[in-house]
Amino acid sequence: MRKSNRAAAGAAAWQVVHDGTRPGRPSLWARIGAVPRMLGARMRGGYTQLSTSRVVAFAAALLYILSPIDAVPEVFVPFIGLADDVGVAAWLAAALMGETERYLEWERRGASYVQGHVVG
Questions:
Q1: Is 115 part of any domain?
Q2: Which DSSP state fits 6?
Q3: Which of 4, 38, 110, 114 could bond to 103 as cystine, CB 3.0-4.6 Å?
Q4: CA 80, 81, 83: angle at the middle one, nearest 5?
Q5: How many angstroms separate the CA atoms of 80 and 53, rounded?
Q6: Per DSSP, what are the bridge partners of residue 117?
Q7: Extended strands (E) in 53-115
Q8: Tens digit of pLDDT for each residue in 18-67?
Q9: Using CA atoms, how far apart are residues 120 and 111, in angstroms rounded to an integer?
């Protein structure tokens, strides 16, 4: 992805993040810190609300954003080439915002993994 596309994708993702961190909702830093805990809890089987396919989709989106190879090269169709990058970044940001909010609520309720059962 070209630098200008990364900047546009980053700006779109930031707008989604900014909209999701209003008063009364978890802060951006709380959400960022929750990602490794959420993935760890998912891998241990405690947090079952996050499906394997969703984790794979998150990883694929991140790799797509970071990859220099685009599905639609900007050289041929500049607007669509930029739109796919921005769309993937915005989807990833929105999906992670929603997922981390659910996870933080799960943590807040005191859910834990005890003898193969989720409690909380």
A1: no
A2: H
A3: 38
A4: 60
A5: 26
A6: 114
A7: 112-114
A8: 666 667 788 888 999 999 999 999 999 999 999 999 999 999 999 888 87
A9: 4
Quote the DSSP letter at residue 115: T
The predicted structure's pLDDT at residue 68: 72
Structural domain contains residue 96 = yes
| pLDDT tens digits, 67-107 | 777 666 666 666 666 677 778 888 898 899 899 999 999 99
In a domain, 120, yes or no: no
* Rounded-to-integer distance, Cα 116 and Cα 84, Å: 41
Show the tokens assigned to 58.
């998150």
pTM flag (> 0.85) = no
* Residue range of the domain that includes 10: 3-108
C-alpha 42/C-alpha 58 separation (Å) is: 14
